[in-house]
Amino acid sequence: MLFDPLATALDPQRLAESEARFEGRIVLAADRLAALVEKTPADAWVRLVFDRGPWDCPRVRGEVQAEVICACQRCREPFPYTLESRWELVFATSDEQVRILGEEGLDCHHEPGPLDMAAMIEDELMLALPMAPHHEPACMPWVQTDEAPHPFAALKGLFARDGHDK
Questions:
Q1: Among residues 6, 39, 158, 163, which is most buried (max CB within 10 A)?
Q2: pLDDT of 17-48, one tens digit each?
Q3: What is the pLDDT of residue 1?
Q4: Looking at beta carbons, which pairs linking 6-12 to residues 24 or more positions away fall under 8 Å?
Q5: What is the structure's pLDDT at 42?
Q6: Can you say how many angstroms the Cα of residue 93 is from the centroid of all Cα atoms in its chain?
Q7: How far apart are CA 62 and CA 45, in angstroms?
Q8: Which of the four pLDDT bands, split at 50, 70 and 90, describes residue 88?
Q9: CA distance 46 to 64
């Protein structure tokens, strides 16, 4: 299903009750992401599944994938990089639920009102960015990709010649 969740805020409670599912390409307006990469994508592929999670709380499980252009931190040349993220977010209704669900290792959201889907998707894309994006080692000519000989390999020959080879 094609949709534009960025045009409107979504109500996770209502979507979980109806077990809504969204999948498709969305228009991406990622201002914060644009500050971190050379070029942001015009769109992204998204899958969202709303249902009931622990403690009968609304939950969204999502996936997002987008292609960005990063600057290599070694040679500063731009290169394409695919951002991919999967997440699960439980919408708690009380501070007690946040505490308990957090202790169980679940990500919780505890703000009443509609969900800003654009911000959530952009957050996930930013979290998927590598700390220091770079090409393969081939972008640095001074790095040798061939395996160098072991520095003590010559000693093995000396030991064998003196009869100390074990």
A1: 6
A2: 999 999 988 888 788 899 999 998 888 999 99
A3: 42
A4: 6/117, 6/118, 6/121, 8/117, 9/113, 9/114, 9/115, 9/116, 9/117, 10/114, 10/115, 10/117, 11/114, 11/115, 12/50, 12/58, 12/60, 12/91, 12/109, 12/115
A5: 83
A6: 27
A7: 11
A8: very high
A9: 5
Percent of the chain clearing pLDDT 90 (strictly above): 36
Length of the chain: 166
Give the domain ranges of the chain. 5-140
Average pLDDT over residues 74-83: 90
The 58-71 sheet, strands edge to edge: 21-27, 43-52, 58-71, 78-91, 107-109
Do residues 120 and 85 touch, judged by C-beta distance below 8 A? no
Secondary structure letter of residue 81 according to DSSP: E
Long-range contacts for 6-11 (Cβ within 8 Å, ≥24 apart)? 6/117, 6/118, 6/121, 8/117, 9/113, 9/114, 9/115, 9/116, 9/117, 10/114, 10/115, 10/117, 11/114, 11/115
164 or 71, greater pLDDT: 71
